[in-house]
Predict the structure.
Amino acid sequence: EVRLVESGGGLVQPGGSLRLSCAASGFTFISYWMSWVRQAPGKGLEWVASINQDGSEMHYVDSVEGRFTISRDNAENSLYLQMSNLRSDDTAVYYCARVMRLRSYYFDLWGQGTLVTVSS
Amino acid sequence: DIVMTQSPDSLAVSLGERATINCKSSQSVLYSPNNHNYLAWYQQKPGQPPKLLIYWASTRESGVPDRFSGSGSGTDFTLTISSLQAEDVAVYYCQQYDSVPPTFGPGTKVHIK
């Protein structure tokens, strides 16, 4: 079964750090760009970051540039998002998504998401 | 960044009737060299992640029922559900993938009248 499973969410104080993980299975992970997309409570979807197949190219939305780092371990079929200096507006469900990389990205497979709450 | 807008915000449709959702981009997402529109549609049911329905503005993803269709070009696009079923209650998002960052519309909530 083709699947993405996120973990690592939770409650963190403003200014704190958190590392999200995404375990991929059922497809050739190394063949795909991967992304994180988030959704604030009751709100729409926002692309956060993407990484290419060998981890040598990363792109970020401006609001997380310098605070978040996307990475991957192809030997473990895993994707990560290291988040630091977290703010209240980072509160969201974070989805791991498989990317169809063209001029930009669209997302053909999504995980169930992990909730990150930034609050004191 | 390309700004995506959708209308209406919410839509109530009777079972078996047609639902039409509009999406507009702030600049064209038609790439002339290949004549493709870089526009996707997603469905998000309550408590679930989004699901890809359509890409290239009109190509259905594998397994998506043929009552879902996409149309349009340039800056104006439409998602049509030809005969609404109970399981189609969801929020629908359009997304451009012509340029980075990829951007989504605000969503259209479809419910049963």
Q: What stands out?
A: Residues 70 and 103 of chain B are 18 Å apart (CA to CA). Chain B has a mean pLDDT of 97. Chain B touches chain A through 25 residues (CB under 8 Å).
